[in-house]
Design brief:
Elements (H helix, E strand, L loop, with lengths): L13 E6 L8 H4 L3 E4 L11 H8 L15 E7 L12 H15 L5 E6 L18 E5 L12 E3 L11 H7 L12 E5 L6 E4 L5 E4 H8 L3 E2 L8 H5 L2 E6 L8 H9 L2 E5 L18 E2 L2 H13 L1 H18 L2 H12 L4
Parallel strand pairs: 1-2, 1-3, 3-4, 4-5, 5-6, 7-10, 7-11, 11-12, 12-13
Antiparallel strand pairs: 8-9
């Protein structure tokens, strides 16, 4: 593997410029500290002001996008939900930003360009990005194990926008908060969230009916809404948590369940995780009907040995793969792989 010394002071240029116009992943600075983070709070109306951003994340971002070039930085990281720019609700600002990003990708001189697409659902990026660009590596949030992508597209289901902080920042920051809270949990399964119907037929058939999804589990889950800042703490008081399909794959709930150390029972999906057998939740803990959900939950409640095995395995994966070192090493193993 090519040497990648992030702390070297001998480099005239910083290692990375991070361009994150949507402010979806300030956490990328945790993986790559030898970097400058560029964004702007005017991209969308709900983005925090610069002062609010500093208060939340503890560092100041840069806004002069003209400084992002190969004279100042060796490598470029871009985080962007690409398909947002092709929906019928896309704003002029979104389309302008997309064109700006295309210009950055086509700019010569960067050693590596890392593009993190964190759009909610699966689609083929070859329709929207110049994937034949040399030294371009694309990391995809929703990487479907049944699909075939270009050889420079890889799974990265760790980046999800969230409030007050993005989910990767949260699981890094709160990784061990509930690690020792494994006794005296309520022997029930918890779920709480919003219900909706999402139907996007523009280019890709993206449909999610959370009312139907909730009807599959409603008889068995305990649904007690709490404020967002109390949600993970609430989850941590239960032995089980339901991961119902929603707006995005994975969604924030998936990662919040891992933080809480509640055992995840998950609605079936085709998401490819970049470790071991490609599963975060084993197939035997995934359901696709009311009957399957009831059977899995009943079996785990009646068999403490089985519950202990699965929660131990889940926590092992969380402790192994959801860390700064593993995430950085995974990315580096791809972009610095010897040809």
């Amino acid at each position: 593997m090519e040497e990648n010394n992030l702390s070297s002071n001998s480099l005239a240029r910083k290692m990375y410029a991070i361009f994150d116009p949507c402010q979806h992943a300030p956490s990328m600075t945790k993986l790559f500290p030898d970097s400058d983070y560029f964004t702007y709070h005017t991209y969308r109306e709900y983005h925090p002001t610069k002062e609010e951003f500093i208060s939340t994340y503890g560092f100041e971002y840069k806004e002069d996008i003209s400084k992002i070039n190969s004279i100042n930085y060796r490598n470029l990281i871009i985080i962007f939900p690409t398909f947002d720019n092709f929906k019928n609700i896309a704003t002029d600002n979104e389309r302008l930003t997309y064109n700006l990003i295309l210009g950055m990708i086509r700019q010569t001189g960067f050693d590596k360009i890392l593009y993190f697409d964190n759009y909610d659902f699966d689609y083929d990026l070859k329709d929207y990005l110049p994937l034949d660009t040399p030294n371009l590596y694309v990391f995809k949030r929703c990487y479907n194990k049944t699909q075939k992508y270009s050889k420079n597209v890889f799974s990265f289901p760790f980046l999800i926008w969230g409030r007050p902080k993005d989910i990767m920042w949260r699981f890094i920051e709160s990784h061990d908060s509930y690690k020792d809270k494994v006794v005296d949990r309520v022997d029930k399964i918890y779920w709480s969230g919003s219900l909706f119907i999402h139907n996007n037929e523009l280019g890709y058939q993206i449909y999610c009916n959370r009312y139907d999804n909730y009807n599959m589990i409603s008889e068995d889950v305990e649904n007690v809404p709490v404020p967002a800042n109390e949600f993970i703490s609430k989850l941590s008081s239960y032995k089980f948590g339901a991961d119902m399909s929603g707006l995005g794959n994975p969604n924030c709930r998936t990662l919040e369940l891992l933080i809480s150390r509640a055992l995840v029972i998950q609605q079936k999906n085709e998401l490819q995780w970049p470790f071991e057998d490609g599963f975060l939740v084993p197939p035997e803990l995934q359901y696709n009907s009311k009957e399957e959900f009831k059977r899995i939950l009943s079996d785990l409640k009646q068999n403490s040995e089985k519950y202990n095995y699965y929660i131990s395995e889940q926590n092992r994966k969380f402790d192994t793969y959801f860390t700064i070192d593993w995430l950085r090493d995974y990315i580096n193993s791809i972009i610095f792989e010897k040809k």
